[in-house]
Each structure stands twice: as structure tokens, then as C-alpha cells.
Specification:
The chain is of the alpha+beta class. It folds into three domains: about 50 residues, no CATH class; about 45 residues, no CATH class; about 70 residues, no CATH class. The chain is about 25% helix and about 20% strand. The protein has six helices and nine strands; from the N terminus they run αβββαββαααββαββ. The protein has a three-stranded antiparallel β-sheet with strand order 1-2-3. β4 and β5 form a beta hairpin. The longest helix is centred in the middle third of the chain and has 15 residues. The radius of gyration is 30 Å and the shape is elongated.
Length: about 190
Amino acid sequence: MAKLTKEEVQKRIDENFDQKVLLISDYINARTDVILRCLECGYEWKNKPHNFIYANHKHKCPNCGFVKGEYFKCAYCGKEVYRTPKNIKKNKSGFFYCSHTCGNLHKNELRKQSGEWDNSLNYRLRAFEQLEHKCVVCGWDDDDRILEVHHIDENRENNNIENLCILCPTCHRKITLHLYELTSDFQLIDKSKQ
């Protein structure tokens, strides 16, 4: 196979790029980097010719060829974060975060400011103040931090202490997956055996 000329490579670039792109370095072979320049935005980048010479699809300038998102400041730490249009559209709160840690810290701060974390409103705190710190089904009590609070009627809006019980993660999962039913005397009944 004969080596392509610079003109032949430019012709393939014209065929395989959505934008006007110019080959500005010499072409040596398909595996040696060349320098390309987008004539629309002026961006220059290196690319291996085999990526676009033998392409079955259109390529784009890495700077201007893709749908642009926006930059936002992290609502907690202020760090600048990039979000795609899809991420922006899916966002419900209007807050953007650079990490899950910042997101959780900011949400906790908002809960404290709104009073949601007052003992009267936070069902977990109330449950641990008033109920025994162990799983009502199996009795597991090794670590309070791992124990969970379950809404007996599965209505998360009903935070009356009579509607709350403390469960270990395993028992809680069995109930929330609807594999087992919790009886009024805190026994688990396997639904597949009914």
C-alpha cells in the first residue's frame, strides 16, 4: 500500500470531519501524530491519522464540535464544575456539586437551617431517643450507626413514633423489597411461602 500524500490526508480529513479542519504538520504514517487545526475555533490538537483516515463515522473538533454544557459553582465549596445539557436538565434542586461529599454536606446544612434536623422533625433521632437500640426482628445491636429506622406503614410522611421501628440493614432490606412481611409482633413472614 502506497503512502498517502499530505493532499490525500487533507481530503480524508475534509470527508471525515464535521468542521473545517486543516492538517498543519507533515504526514509521516497512520500511527504518527499529526497536528490539526479547527478553522472554526482555531483550536489545535494532536491526533493519530488512523483515527480519522479510515473512519466510518464523522469526527468533531474536540473544542467546538460537541454540544456545550455550562460551568457552575459548587453550591458548597464554590469550586467550578462543568455540567452537560443533559445533567442540567435532570437537575431538580438547582444546586450543582463537585462531589457527593459536597452535595451531602450542603444538603445537611440546608436541613439544619430549615429545622428538619430538630428532634421534633427528624424521625431517626426521635426513634433512637425513644426506642431500644436493636433490631426488633433479630435483636442485632452491634453498632447503632448501622441500625436503620423503618416506617411500619411504609409511608415516609407518617413519622409518629408508633409507626417507627429499628431494624438491622438485612431485616430492613427483606421488608422494603417486599420479600417478607412484618407482623404486628415484629416477626418476618416469607411471602414466597404463603
